[in-house]
Design a protein that fits this description.
The protein has 3 helices and no strands. The protein is mainly alpha-helical. The protein has one domain: Metal-sensitive repressor, helix protomer (Methane Monooxygenase Hydroxylase, Chain G, domain 1), CATH 1.20.58. It is elongated. The two termini are 25 Å apart.
Length: 89
């Protein structure tokens, strides 16, 4: 099931922000910035990526799992659990 427009726009916004942060870290490396500053920015990227994953998992749980259940796909809950566990790494 495709992601709805509102959730898609929110996810794209977050991913663009992450992309900008990643470019910022590249600049920091090119400029020879302090390691602690770079680590701080990388932690921000990790947090933003996790937040984007949670947003998508919530959408999946609300919109996709019920749709799959209605289609007679019995393993939808198992799929959700697998997705949640794989995103935790």
């Amino acid at each position: 099931m495709p992601i709805d427009d509102k959730a898609r726009q929110e996810l794209l916004s977050r991913l663009r922000r992450i992309e900008g942060q990643a470019r910022g870290v590249q600049r920091m490396l090119d400029e020879g910035r302090d390691c602690a500053e770079i680590v701080h920015q990388l932690a921000s990227i990790r947090s933003a990526a996790y937040s984007a994953s949670v947003l998508l998992l919530k959408h999946y749980a609300r919109e996709c799992v019920p749709g799959r259940a209605a289609e007679g796909q019995p393993d939808q809950i198992e799929d959700l659990v697998d997705l949640m566990l794989s995103s935790a790494h």
